[in-house]
């Protein structure tokens, strides 16, 4: 085997032109989906390809992308999705400057988008544009299969639907469909992408379960009486449980007012209709499954207005407010909780279909509204809220009755910073906490009290303004 000929001056520095260089390409850091994806709700084809539609802010797009919840392999990536709110079809346009595998592969964008939009995603833009004309009666056709429950005119007048001319001139309709109706299942399947994008922590309901009910809030366009069309403003999905011996319970699982129509009172109207259904059909109670903070605010505001007009509850509130005004609670050894009597709780459930948990949420706000002037009694009011919060967290005995709250680190959720447990002996002093732990516990409890007081004031102010 021949040897490679060496240069006489082999020991000298090599020729720079022949020097081998090793390069390292940059590692692809990926891009957050929210940074490169924009989603527009559009009602006419002229808005497609522009920014004239309503741009929504999804709660979380990351979960639809597998690799570290990011998008990899693209330079200058932009994804624009248009959703037709007439037929609820969608179309995506994807542009980028180039692709390269920077160690994380190249994300399959089509597959990821299909996880969100499913069969509503149309690849061909012309096919998507045609849906604005070919399916402009889609919502109307679904509505025709449902039961009209209640209508509300633009001036806010609410009437039961009875087919007379006054009701027919109203522009808002609420329609109920059982989920075993094919039209209801068809519409809901097209609404799933918006549910995933806009309702935090949501999962699609089982459209094959006939016990589900779909309530549609629509606006009827009456400018063309011969061909009246319906625009979907929002919807709610409820589950009807059996209640022994021959009754039922209604649970609200999902409710959504489409973003272009939010903050206009449509959500409150839909809640009102659902509450009226619960009363008129004499269900056991009307509950909500894991309500989000904003919806809970709307729901409580509505229930407060009903309770203010409910005489039995008002008598109980006056009594509680009168007792609270009697003295400085913060100086008393034992602080009463000012809870409503079981008779009132039961009367509210039977008449208004407000369950006990929700009524107790409203009760504290009703007491606040009953204190006049509130500034004079605010210290005592804060005391009963603080006492209630401590009792809920630590037990009925404010001295903790052996329960302890200890701060612990969490790698899964930074907000889950403490746990509660009871010592086997049941003695409050059997678990010793150092000064820092005690201070942390007090701060956490005080934060809960402050948040509750803020919430009470916001709802009280909102309700008071509507009663001026």
UniProtKB/TrEMBL annotation:
GO terms for cellular component: chromosome, telomeric region; cytoplasm; nucleus. It catalyses: L-lysyl-[protein] + acetyl-CoA = N(6)-acetyl-L-lysyl-[protein] + CoA + H(+). Residues 32-200 form the Histone acetyl transferase HAT1 N-terminal domain. Its main location: cytoplasm. It is found in: Cytoplasm; Nucleus. Keywords: Acyltransferase, Cytoplasm, Nucleus, Transferase. Residues 232-283 form the N-acetyltransferase domain. It holds the Pfam family Hat1_N. It is an enzyme of class 2 (transferase). Belongs to the HAT1 family. This is histone acetyltransferase. It comes from Hibiscus syriacus.
